[in-house]
Amino acid sequence: MDRLSATLDRLGGVYLLPVAIGLLTLVVIPTSTWFTLTVAGLAMGMMIFLMASGLSLIFGLMDVLNFGHSAFVSFGAFIAAAVLAALAGWVGGDSPALNIVALLAAIAAATAFGAAAGWFFERVIVRPVYRDHLRQILVTIGALIVAEQLILSIWGGVPIAVPRPRVLEGSILFGNVAVESYRIFAFALGVAVYVAMHLVLNRTRIGLLIRAGVENREMVEALGFRIERLFIAVFMAGSALAAMGGAMWAGYQGLITPALGSEMIVLVFIVVIIGGLGSIEGSLLGAIMVGLVANYVAFLMPKMALASNMLLMMAILLWRPYGLRPAVRG
Amino acid sequence: MGAILRLDDVHTDIGRYHVLHGVSLDVPEGGVHVLLGRNGAGKTTTLRTIMGLWRARRGAIVFRHHDISALHTADVARLGIAYVPENMGIFGGLTVEENLRLAAHGGSFDKDRLERVLALFPALEKFWDRPAYALSGGQKQMLAIARAIIENRDLILIDEPTKGLAPSIIRAMIDAFREIASDTTILLVEQNFLFARALGSSVAVIDDGRIVHTGSMAELAADEALQTRLLSLSLEAH
How far is B182 from chain A (nearest CA, A)? Predict the structure, then answer.
């Protein structure tokens, strides 16, 4: 058993799980459908990863239970929708370059807003309740309600249609399998963000401090670093990523409501818990598994779709109570 | 020999509990100075209060003529005080190199210093690129101490380094501590009297949050009656 475990670890360990899920479902799902579902699952996973990775770092480093995280997702979605609507000429025009510029502008606006709102949120709402989980839950849920009401008062309660850039409207054919261009773009953006985060966390001194701080804040301070100065940067980055995820999700869904963030936060928390606290790799792994399972189960057992991710979380926690790849190790 | 660190009537509360009841202690410059005491006597609280990890409610902590009792932990560390906690404080997800690099000034190693540290703890070089969680208990303790000395520190606070270690590793630790103490001051908290006796030049005994004895280690080591009286205080008191 130990030898089998060691061999599996050498081959990739828990990273083999999405591959195993994919191969298992390939047995029962026709190949072309399986390919479409897999790409959809990967794209969905990458968008959830954007939303979850920041929350995981905030949780891990700052020990803050931020239930208001979904407000950044909602605002990101609505700001992106507003920018896309304002640039309707570019979004629906014939120039692929202008199509992409419009989308990137929408994502950039949402991300910038997320960072700025994150700064305000940390300074005004979270900072007074550090080290007090009960108050954190209360004030962040309160802030989430206020944020949703703000969205309601600005954009109204009627669902808003989000235009997709024309260049990403259609599908790309791989043999006889059609894959939506937007999903490929979402997957590519997620990979790019993951690579950037991985490089920052593993190749820079700030990244080293963040990884150490996630494990043991007190010891980082005993080594001479004022870790609270990192908090604001991590909170802003986490909020910006959530808003970016919201912007991408808006385009993916095509129709958004003020409750978008609250609907997504359950999946986001599942990903953080499955992946393990404070770990970017864990968040990526958890998000991809959630995306794949959601799509495969929706096809195979539609009535189980809602419960599938909860069941996945339960199964993983029974096996690994600290998640698949927690940042803190003994 | 002047005191590098002076605690004067230090009181510390942990939550509702008044743990240090006016600790007064002088730590002379150079050598190994031992703080002995039973479990719960206030040894760890004393070290954590010096580091600013728990705030002193009253009293003064003076390090090289600076009152550090109100300083942030990071500022205490920057003054030249290193801390090795009882749980070692190793970052398990970081490699051995990253653990050491974090403590190195500006993130880059002084070559001579690194060579000296690796000469003291050769096992660390062998596991240089391995995550620290994969190290044995003894190797983790070596890493924790190596991290404390990877930069030149004036004072190192070490909390029960022998806890749970095999005798062979404790013997290696004694040699390493002697070498380290040749150019720095160590305040060592210990329950293992044999280890403390092998290293310490002076000793203070703490009981119920108060210093109940200070003197030379040689004096305590030679006086069995005094050892019995001081080190069994806890049994009589509880």
Answer: 22
